[in-house]
Amino acid sequence: MPIKKDIIWRVGAIYTLVIIFAILIVGRVVALQLFEGDKWRSKAQSLSQRDVIVSANRGDICAADGRLLASSLPYYQLRMDFRASGLTDSLFRADVDSLALCLSRFFQDKSAKDYRNMLWKAKYRTKSNRYFLIHRKKINYIGLKKIKTFPIFRLGQNKGGLICEQENRRIQPHLNLANRTIGYLLEGEQNQQIGKVGIEGAFESDLKGVDGISIIQKMSGRWLPVNMVEPKDGNDLITTIDVNYQDVAESALEQQLIKYNADHGSVVLMEVKTGAVKAIANLGFDEKSQSYREDYNYAIGEATEPGSTFKLASIMALFEDGYVGPMDSVDTGNGVFSYYKEKMRDSHVGGYGKITVQEAFEKSSNVGISKLVNDHYKNKPRSFINRLYEFRLNEPLGLAIKGEGIPSIKYPDDPSWSGVSLPWMSIGYAVQQTPLQTLTFYNAIANNGKMMKPKFVKELRYHGDVIQTFDKEVLKSKICSGETLKNVKNMLEGVVLRGTARNLRNANYTIAGKTGTAQIADKNKGYKVKVYQASFVGYFPADDPMYSCIVVINRPNKTKGFYGNQVAGPVFKTIADKVYAMSYSMHPIKPDDASLEPKVPVSLNGYKNDLDKVFDELNIEIANKDIQSEWVITSRKDSIIEYKYRTIKKFMVPNVKGMGVQDALYILENAGLKVRVKGLGSVSGQSIQPGAYFNKGDHITIDLS
User: Fold this and answer.
1) Which CATH architecture has domain 54-239?
2) Which residues pair with 512 in a beta bridge?
3) Where are the transmembrane segments (predicted)?
């Protein structure tokens, strides 16, 4: 009995424990379902599902004619998964030699034996043989297509183990062309490329698109996509840049920088009516490469003392306030004049003596302009500064592109104001302007007083469809009176015809503008060292302006030359000449030219009946119209067309030169020849000479041009 009781007790204890354990399990299950279910379901999903960002394709930046200026191209990093389910030992061993040979020929950096040893080691001797890096070099899409034809790799990811990790690179096909204005991308969060400067930065939200999300789930040890929110590609951006003009501007600027050993320079070409920037070049000397490259956007970001180009604003203020007129006089004396302890000098030794206001401007007399401003505004300097403010010279242009330099025109209550401030400001010192701000002011003169905001982008497109157009924007509808405008336009033309820029004159079209030569502060020694900035700003053709342009060259070698007309002027002229040559709308048709135009159109040789109908419809007189010939040769004489015989004999190759392809084919094929055609246009040559004998079925080739 004691044994039986002991057994019953033990069984009962075990049963009780089982019951208690079962209750605990049931309780825990209930607790998990009711209270902790969401938490653990979320954790399970995180272990079996992932959200993968699918990057959107960044939009292209294009020139005005659609040519690419910046685009994103895919590049691929090659890896190999040696644990891929289909990559068996027998498959690997059978084709590894062939794969190694293909890789060696493709990358051309190691022998086939070295590649075989690398692959063999990665497969059998390395513990971490998943996602093995095949090569550090990233390849383009064309290269990837070739790689996918290699042994083993052509079997795909599961059997061949090839893994291609895509990375998009921003490429500028034209290399240095407007590089700083187009901008570039910098590394952002999650290794994303973000536009920071230039057009890339200004239109980042439009270009980047919207990333998608791919939900992948782990199934049978592999991650497979189960759902995807598709990315939305970025918009393409059509700029105002003309690639041909841009190339001309950069080439002309670089040649002059090299000639004068200058530190840096910039050029901007603008469309007068719209403010559209057609070319913008910024080149600085790079010590490492010992060459010039786009290292900073000087045209937009560098605010310096403009020098004599600022004299236009001074003259306009005098005209607007009615103090002087173009034919009034000013005595420049011997070209030296003192303001307190500071001496103002003209570049012309000995001075100009007594000259008109117009001559003072055309000859760029520092003494003449400063005396005029000082005489009339000395006791009321605020009036002068207010005029400059009315011209909008103290305000930034408000460009979308970041980094615009801030213009500076101090007011008389500024602590640094002194008795010499007014005369020195009148000739472009103690003020600061960027090249683009100066050009915008001159462009307003060319545009009959209407100041346009510089425009770099004209359209946004999505997959070819225009979704937004950027209209021209007016900063100031009228910067001065019509009378002032008329006077300064005449004076700006005079600078080129009679003044400091006479070297820019040409017989084909007129240029209006102003030279500028400024002594600027050295980076380290200030004004103790003479460092110069040469510039020229103007517009063309002067009688009907289409383009305005500014050229600024900083720190030219003073022993070779530093004056604006000498250093910057030739760049302006080169650009203007080539733009004029390329722009047919700028070439007026002369009355005498009309007499040189033919009065009848060019006619091809051909079938007489067809030609009769065409010439009758056009009311063109025909000589020898009654000629008895099915096929004729046509020639143009003054205002009439003359017919001549064209005889076609059997078994002799016809003469089809000068005919259209339709008539030539008809004649030759009817004669029994088989015809090949090369080119476009009218027949310029034939492989078998006219009059030669032939056999039916012979081949003949006709060349069109």
Assistant:
1) Alpha-Beta Complex (3.90)
2) 539
3) 12-35
Task: Find, among 558, 526, 594, 501, the residue nearest to 308 by Cα.
Answer: 501
Is the pLDDT score of 593 beyond 70?
Answer: no
- From the CB of residue 300, how many other CB atoms can be counted at a distance below 10 Å? 28
Pairwise CA distance, residues 656 & 639, whole Å: 25
Each residue's pLDDT tens digit, 646-667 = 667 777 888 878 777 777 777 7
Q: What is the residue-wise DSSP string for 177-219?
A: TTHHHH--EEE-GGG-EEE-SHHHHHTHHHHH-B-EEEEEEEE
Return the structure tokens found at 549.
Answer: 């342009």
Q: Which CATH number fits domain 606-704: 3.30.10.20, 2.60.40.740, 2.40.260.10, 3.40.720.10?
A: 3.30.10.20
For 541-673, list the strands marked E by DSSP: 547-554, 606-607, 621-623, 631-637, 640-645
**Average per-residue pLDDT for the chain:** 85
CA 401 – CA 245 distance, rounded (Å): 21
| C-alpha pair distances (Å), 226 with each of 201, 218, 255 | 35, 10, 59
**CA-CA-CA-CA torsion for 490, 492, 495, 496, nearest 10 degrees?**
-90
Beta strand ranges found along 305-417 (DSSP E)? 329-331, 336-339, 342-345, 354-356, 408-409
CA 176 to chain centre: 10
- Indicate the pTM of the whole model: 0.72
From residue 36, alpha-carbon distances to 39, 45, 46, 253 in Å are 5, 14, 16, 72
> What does the pLDDT read at residue 219?
52
Structure tokens at 25: 């399990």
Report the CATH fold assignment for 244-585.
Beta-lactamase (3.40.710)
Segment 11-58, tens digit of pLDDT: 777 778 888 877 877 777 776 666 666 665 665 555 555 555 667 788
Domain residue spans of the chain: 54-239, 244-585, 606-704
Give me the helix-helix angle, 311-320 and 435-446, nearest 10°: 40
How many of the other CB atoms lie within 10 Å of CB of 607? 16
Token pair 């998608």: residue: 212
**Do residues 268 and 247 make contact, with C-beta atoms less than 8 angstroms apart?**
no
Kindly tell me if the per-residue pLDDT of 300 is higher than 60. yes
57-66, 435-444, 581-590, range with greatest mean pLDDT: 435-444
Which residue shows structure tokens 């490469």? 289
The 10s digit of each residue's pLDDT in 343-381 is: 999 988 899 999 999 999 999 999 999 999 999 999 999
DSSP symbols for 460-512 = EEETTEEEEE----EEES-SS-HHHHHHHHHHHHHHHHTSTTGGG--SSS--E
Phi, psi (deg, nearest 5) at residue 332: -90, -5
Residue 186 has pLDDT above 80, yes or no: no
Which backbone phi and psi does 287 adopt, to 5 degrees?
-65, -35
Residues 6+ apart with CB under 8 A from 346: 332, 335, 336, 352, 365, 366, 367, 368
